[in-house]
Amino acid sequence: MKYFKLSMIAALLLVLFTNNSCDDLPELITEVSGTIIKTASYCGGAAPTDEILAELATPAPYIGTLYLKQGTINDPLEPALATITTDENGDFSIVLAEGDYIIVTAEHLGDYTNDYPWWPDVSSEYCQNWLATPYISFTVNDAYTPTTYNIHLACNPCVPPPPGGH
Questions:
Q1: Using 50, 70 and 90 to split pLDDT, how confident is the model at 4?
Q2: CATH code, domain with 113
């Protein structure tokens, strides 16, 4: 009886492991790469000079850290899968499995209702839509090619404006 039980367990394990083929696993893309170019809105206090507005409107490499999430819509309470750091040219690369991904800034992470409970716009539809909308969305598949992404860094409607701001 003891050998019968061991034989049954061994047979069950064999069936389980042989029925799981590698075809069920997503294929890895060795490198997903691109360039991120940004423009920005003026989100300061006092009225900006024409030079400041022109500089913000001029496309430039995004230099810094962004956050990668899986899917097509951002859930600010869901943690990021990874960080993406761009170089001085706005270039990045990362290894990813096939699927849909989004890239957001740190401002798109977290719960603003705890930080600014007194700010009425935190729970507004406009704030929630801004949080849900990623700066970049893309699909990784066998047809993926490196891309230049143009983003516009808009003012965060979920936080109060600085003194003298609009």
A1: very low
A2: 2.60.40
Q: Over the stretch 58-78, which tens digit does the pLDDT of each residue have?
A: 999 999 999 999 999 999 999
Local confidence band at 145 (pLDDT 50, 70, 90 cut-offs): confident
User: How many structural domains comprise the chain?
Assistant: 1
One-letter-per-residue 3-state SS of the chain: CHHHHHHHHHHHHHHHHHHCCHHHCCCEEEEEEEEEEEEECCCCCCCCCHHHHHHHHCCEECCCEEEEEECCCCCCCCCCCEEEECCCCCEEEEEEECEEEEEECHHHCCCHHHHCCCCHHHHCHHHHHHHHCCCEEEEECCCCCCEEEEEEECCCCCCCCCCCCC
